[in-house]
Amino acid sequence: MPSQSVQEIAHIVIDFLAEYQGRPSHELYEELSVRGQELPVDSVLVMEILSRVEQHFLVRIPADAEAGRSLRSVWAFAETVYDTMQAKEPHQ
């Protein structure tokens, strides 16, 4: 099982977003709570966040339709990262 929970991954993603946008994390948390966890970013920033998340968690997110849809929601994206981490772990 991955060492981070989906919620912990979501917090890290939000912190990365806030950093790239030059905003305090708490502002982004407030905005996300109002907007329903959607990612308030453009496609270029999404790619930067994706790259940073892949480096941070040592995973490669597959470039498929499901992964693309997951980039519209912080929670869905965190779940995709979690599932990818879980899939890469050796089966016991």
What's this model, at a glance?
The protein has 92 residues and is mainly alpha-helical. It has helices spanning 6-21, 25-35, 43-57, 65-70, 74-88.
Q: In one word, what is the shape?
A: globular
Structural class label: mainly alpha
The beta-strand count equals 0
Helix and strand succession?
HHHHH
Strand content: under 5%
Computed CA radius of gyration, to the nearest angstrom: 13 Å
Q: What's the number of helices?
A: 5
Task: Look at the structure and give the mean pLDDT.
Answer: 82
For the largest beta-sheet, the strand count, sense and barrel status come to: none
Helical content band: 55-70%
Low confidence ranges: none
- End-to-end gap: 10 Å
Describe what this molecule looks like in 3D:
- Helices cover 68% and strands 0% of the residues.
- The chain has 92 residues and is an all-alpha fold.
- The longest helix is centred in the first third of the chain and has 16 residues, at 6-21.
- It is globular and about 40 Å long.
Produce the secondary structure layout:
Blueprint: H1 6-21, H2 25-35, H3 43-57, H4 65-70, H5 74-88
Helix pairs in contact: 1-2, 1-3, 1-5
Question: Which structural traits does this protein have?
Answer:
92 residues; mainly alpha; 5 helices
